[in-house]
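To whoever is on call:

I kicked off a structure prediction for a single chain this morning and the downstream step that reads the tokens threw a length-mismatch warning. I double-checked the sequence; it's 212 residues and nothing unusual in it as far as I can see. Pasting both halves so you can look.
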Amino acid sequence: MSKSKLGLIAGLVIIYGCFWIWYGGNGDQISKAEGELLLARVEAMYGDSTTPEPKNSLRKNLPEMIRNDDGKEFYAINLETITPGKKAREEENKYASIILPQLLKRAGHPVLISETAGLMLGDYGRNVDQVVIVRHRSLRDMIEMSLEPSMKQGWVHKYGSVDNAEVFITRASIAIADLRLILGLLVMLIGFFGVGFINWKQRRAQDPELQP
């Protein structure tokens, strides 16, 4: 194999390997001591806040979430009842402008943002206007994100854009839309066509009839 092909393949493997490490999703679970420290930091930031909180807020559910943590990636399923009106949409956009950079910095990202289009089974779905699924690298990352100063104001905008939000976390058994799989396939395609292009260039250089 020529040096150019080896260089291309090695470069793609290194790039994908670095992405795989950064994207993570299989870290250490939060220890009891670390959990107590994180909870204390959250309480210090939000415990005396004048920001309105829902009855079962993230702050109140964190102790149980930490006890159940396994250090791995998870998906937050958001079932939202949207507040009508222009002002609520402005609040939603402000919240998105705050949370998206914080998510991406920690390898988190939306997987699905969709509006409901009808009821198939059950009854609770009648109260849901929007479904949002967000991937988090770990619970640790999610808590650290919530401790960013900008996120305190972000929650104000969040509560200003929805009448109600039910959020629960899940761990995927099968995830066809996994970004690692998608990027891996893309890297393979780049490698396949890259090697093909190098072969074409080499044949062209060796065949006088193909040279300009």
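Update from on-call: the warning came from a stale cache, not from the record. Cleared it. Sanity check on the structure: Helices lie at 3-23, 32-46, 58-67, 86-105, 139-146, 149-161, 179-206.
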